[in-house]
């Protein structure tokens, strides 16, 4: 029984990370129909900003229990400053072009941002383990786990709950759903589609940065951090269904548990198990586990 619990804890932790890493990507696609390859760079931006903020926080002896708010604030500022600027002055003028063109533009943004991160923070690794160590550990059987796992799981649940409430229970959410189904009719009905787009892109980029910021204390923050993230996030989003919030949650949960099982019982499969799950799902459901309804063209 203890071994099963260990697999479950590892799986839930990785599922929470996958969800946090991918939810911003699916949000942007759901509303704007953009596969934002630069998503990985915003993840890296959040990690680097977290490294800088926690470094300053620790050096000045600020209360360690407030460092988690500092992580959150750094990520939101980074995502909501850079993201809307890119949408306003670059992407806004590309929406009428083919989706492949926009995909290539976001890929170019990814390359530019990766080099910009190197120019600002250099190529040396950053280590900020203080928030990770401060919360202590809990035990399951003979295994000890950091309580930081619980923080990541709680953050994923809060993000999912807030997005669900906003989308289904608020006026802004109803406008968002309207834009998702038909942006032209929405604009004709008086909805400011440009404002919806810039807010959506800002929120999506901030969610990627939040994932990076809260992952930073558990890893070495180095150049190229966003490459793996965009690949894994895309796998999760495609498996769940492009633009589907429940889909990305379910896909992250399944992939996290399957990966944890492989690590403990068949470690030789760990490297490609996530992509195997994606291939298996798409073989039977080419549009993913869930998919948004598309407006019927007349």
Give a verbal description of the structure.
The chain has 298 residues and is mainly alpha-helical. It has a domain at 25-225. It has 12 helices and 2 strands, in the order H-H-H-H-H-E-E-H-H-H-H-H-H-H. It has helices spanning 2-32, 39-59, 67-89, 99-121, 130-134, 148-169, 171-181, 183-188, 193-215, 225-240, 245-265, 273-284, and strands spanning 137-140, 143-146. Strands 1-2 form a two-stranded antiparallel sheet. Strand 1 and strand 2 form a beta hairpin. It is globular, with a radius of gyration of 19 Å.
Structural class: mainly alpha
Distance between the termini: 57 Å
> What overall geometry do the principal axes of the alpha carbons give?
globular
Total E-strand runs = 2
- Beta-strand residue fraction: under 5%
Question: How is the biggest beta sheet arranged?
Answer: 2 strands, antiparallel
Q: Largest beta sheet: what is the strand line-up?
A: 1-2
Subcellular location: Cell membrane
Keywords: Amino-acid transport, Cell membrane, Membrane, Transmembrane, Transmembrane helix, Transport
GO cellular component, one term: plasma membrane
Pfam families: BPD_transp_2
Keywords:
298 residues, mainly alpha, two-stranded antiparallel ribbon, 2 strands, 3% strand
Topology readout:
Layout: H1 2-32, H2 39-59, H3 67-89, H4 99-121, H5 130-134, E1 137-140, E2 143-146, H6 148-169, H7 171-181, H8 183-188, H9 193-215, H10 225-240, H11 245-265, H12 273-284
Antiparallel strand pairs: 1-2
Helix pairs in contact: 1-6, 1-9, 1-10, 1-11, 2-3, 2-4, 2-9, 2-10, 3-9, 6-7, 10-11, 10-12
């Amino acid at each position: 029984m203890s071994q099963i619990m260990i697999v479950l804890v590892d799986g839930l932790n990785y599922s929470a990370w996958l969800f946090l890493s991918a939810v911003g990507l699916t949000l942007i696609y759901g509303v704007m129909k953009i596969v934002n390859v630069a998503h990985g760079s915003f993840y890296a931006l959040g990690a680097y900003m977290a490294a800088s903020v926690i470094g300053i926080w620790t050096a000045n002896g600020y209360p360690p229990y407030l460092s988690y708010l500092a992580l959150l604030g750094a990520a939101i500022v980074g995502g909501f400053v850079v993201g809307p600027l890119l949408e306003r002055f670059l992407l806004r003028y590309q929406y009428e072009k083919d989706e492949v063109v926009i995909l290539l533009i976001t890929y170019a943004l990814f390359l530019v941002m990766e080099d910009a991160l190197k120019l600002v923070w250099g190529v040396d690794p950053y280590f900020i383990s203080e928030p990770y160590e401060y919360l202590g550990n809990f035990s399951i059987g003979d295994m000890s786990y950091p309580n930081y796992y619980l923080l990541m799981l709680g953050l994923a649940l809060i993000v999912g709950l807030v997005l669900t409430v906003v989308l289904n229970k608020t006026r802004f959410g109803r406008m968002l759903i309207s834009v998702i189904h038909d942006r032209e009719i929405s604009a004709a009905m008086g909805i400011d589609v440009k404002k919806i787009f810039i807010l959506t892109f800002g929120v999506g980029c901030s969610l990627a940065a939040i994932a990076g910021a809260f992952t930073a204390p558990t890893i070495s923050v180095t150049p190229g951090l966003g490459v793996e993230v965009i690949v894994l996030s895309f796998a999760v989003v495609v498996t769940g269904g492009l633009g589907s919030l429940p889909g990305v949650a379910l896909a992250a949960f399944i992939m996290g548990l399957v990966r944890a099982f492989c690590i403990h019982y068949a470690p030789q499969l760990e490297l490609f198990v996530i992509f195997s799950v994606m291939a298996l799902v798409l073989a039977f459901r080419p549009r993913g586990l869930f998919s948004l309804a598309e407006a019927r063209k007349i």
